Model the fold of this input.
Amino acid sequence: MLVFILRRLFNAAFVMLAVAFLAFAIFRVAGDPVEMMANEQMTQADRDALRERMGLNDPMLVQYGRFVANAASGDFGMSWRNGQEVLGLIGERFPATMELVLVATFLSLAIGLPLGVLTAIGRGRWYAEALQLVSIIGVSLPSFVVGILLILVFSVTLGIAPAFGRGEVVDWGWWSTGFLTHSGRAALLLPSIALALYQITLVMRLVRAEMLEVMRSDFVKFARARGVPRHRIWFLHALRNCLMPVITMTAMNVGSLIAFALITETVFQWPGMGLLFIQAVTFLDFPVMSAYLVIISFIFVALNTAVDIAYAVIDPRLRETK
Done:
């Protein structure tokens, strides 16, 4: 088991080194950072001094090693756009993104699980087929289209939810939350639904497929023969045996939600990491772009590694095959 864990951690470290190289290459491909940071008043001597201070005269391998060491310690440099520390900027936006992702994850489970059970036990009936059709539409619609439609219906037409912003927030140390204010909860509603819609359809279709498989198993047939009530069979016995793949998919999709929340955040002007990344791309703020790439990749790799180790703990056979 120890060898398996060490192998997984080594693979994770190798992936992060590759991601760090891609993030580092952004600086090299983009051009000379000094020219991007320089203003009209800077002389050539000032530019040379700045280049020396930033270590740009060092060999490429030395610069890459310095970048990896700084990134490992959380030092991603200064933002070229506003002169603030990149890690501080991301730390300010991180709570907004995490709250959006957590609410979207909760909605995907709270809505997707019962809908999946309903479409499985009602297979062939009109409402199950209607939900299947709606799920196909939910998978097919891009998130920015869903966001625009939600704004058009609930903000512009009905006027019951704000169209943009995060509302009033309360600071708990470095963490800011909108859960404790009415405007914060109202502002969270539409973007979380837009972000969760795709995940809801995935959970529903996965639960349906697993439920149909479990309902054909012998222990369900024996439970029916013993006269166990149908609702106990559906929700206590069958659904419990469907939760493992759902939990795994949900854990894996948390990283995807964080990464792809940038579209939803842009549509709703949600002040999270995704909107910060879009602004960095607009203004060619490469330190912020590189930091975002490294942090999101770290979340993906950490979740994948944790799931692999958890699987190996549950099923010892996987330790030998992976």
Summary: Residues 119 and 284 are 47 Å apart (CA to CA). The two ends are 11 Å apart (CA to CA). The first helix runs from residue 2 to 30.
